[in-house]
Structures are given as structure tokens and as C-alpha cells.
Amino acid sequence: MRGVWREEHTLSSSAQPSGHHGAVSSDEIDVLMLSAAKSQRSGDWLHAAMLCRDALQIARSRGDFELMSRICMPMLEAQRGLRFEAIEAGPIRVITSGEDLQDGPEHGAYLFAPNLVGADARQFRTAANNAGVPVFVLTREPQMSNGLWPIVGVGERVVRIRIEPPSNPEIIDASWFTYASEQLGDQAIEDAKNAGEPDDPAAWLVDDFLDRLDACPEHEKFLMALADACKEATTMPTPTIMRRRALVNDPYSF
User: Burial code of 12-27, b = ≥16 C-beta within 10 A, e = fewer?
Assistant: First the structure.
């Protein structure tokens, strides 16, 4: 990771790569990020992105917002590489049922469409990534009466936009797919910023972004906005009360 974690970075002798489900050593994040840097240099964007995600979760569990902000940029680079390679891997596959995936996940870009929903796409991406297969996935819901397509991303919170379908709905080209992804991520930024009240602790805004990270993990501006929120949180006291957010009243949700 340029200018952030390099191989010559000095680790303490106690640092051990211990997966994030076990005890956290003082330098576990360094170990994860150095491994992510190696994966990125070798072009293994998925592995780099997943290691960055683990490091980000550990840093949040410590309340280390400054470190979170530093992790966001390497994560952005990894997701960018993953996104570009998935788009270039071949035609975008339209998936309407589980039968379309009988051969298992393959590297590339996917549009999940009715009768599948956003939760199906999230589950597929998680399973593919766990199997070491990088995929870029969007979901569209049934066409609305005004002709627009709802595009949805699912994280801890659902993000949804409504956009014009491609000129030929039978063929999803890369430009429309990329446009839909950008619009979804832009909406996720707005949703995170509007989730709370003006006097909420800055740490809560960080969590509002994290709630939506799985909805648009490939979106560069979203990760940059998360980094900015983390930087802001470093200047503010850590909240002593639990964040509470109302459920979103969305008639198109599932």
C-alpha cells in the first residue's frame, strides 16, 4: 500500500497473524495490511480487499478511527482493481434464478434480476469471495410503472435508487452497469450522511457508513467519504451511549 504499509515496516516481535476471530495482538492490523500489500502487488485484488476489510473491522472494534482512515485508501485501491477486472472478464451475466448458477461462481460481473433480490446477490458475493472468486454484483428489482428500474444494494442497511434501464434491457453493457453502480454508491453516501442528527457523535456517522459498506463495496467515493468520516471522528470524544437508528420506511423494501 503506497505510503501506508510497506514490507520494511517494523513490527514488534509479539505480532502474530491471528485471524480476526481470535485474540487481537497489538500489531495484527500491521500484519494484515502488509499481507494485503503483497496481494495487491501480485494482482490478487480480492484477497487484498478482504484483508483490508478484516483490518477495518478490528480497528473499529478498538475505536481507532485514525487507523481506519488509513486503511480505507488501500481498500479503495484493491476494490478498484477487483472492479476493473470483473468488468473486463467478459459479458455481464444476468441471473434470474439459482439454476443460472449451477456451474458455480465465475470471475466477472453479475446483474441479479427478478425473481431474485438484493439479499440473494449479497449471499452470492459472499460465497464467491469466500471461495476466492472475485465478482462484482448488482441487483435490479421489478420495473416500476414509470419504466424505471430499482437498483438495490444490501448491507446492514438497504440502499436503493431508481434509474432508466439500458436501451436494450436484454443486454447489460459495461457502461450502464458502471453507471448504475456509481449511482447506487452516491445514494449510499447521502443515506449515511442523512441517517442521524446534526449533533450526533462523529463516531456514529462512521458506523452509518459501515452499515452500508456491503451495499456498494466497489464505490470509490463511498470509501473516500468513509475515510473522511473516520478522520472527523478522530477529533471528537468517543461517545458513551449506544447509537440508535430508526428502521427505514421504504415501501419497496423486502
Answer: eeebeeeeeeeeebeb
Give per-residue pLDDT as tens, 160-210: 999 999 999 889 999 999 999 999 999 999 999 999 888 899 999 999 999
Q: Which of 147, 144, 145, 141 is nearest to 115 (CA)?
A: 141
Count of other CB atoms within 10 angstroms of residue 209: 24
75: Cα separation from own chain's centroid: 9
Contacts of 58 (CB under 8 A, 6+ apart): 20, 24, 28, 29, 32
- Of 71, 10, 75, 78, the C-alpha closest to 41 is 78
Q: What is the pTM of this model?
A: 0.85
Report pLDDT digits (tens) over 113-167.
999 999 999 999 999 999 999 999 999 999 999 999 999 999 999 999 999 999 9
* CB burial of residue 135 (10 Å; 0-12, 13-18, 19+): buried
CA distance 47 to 36: 7
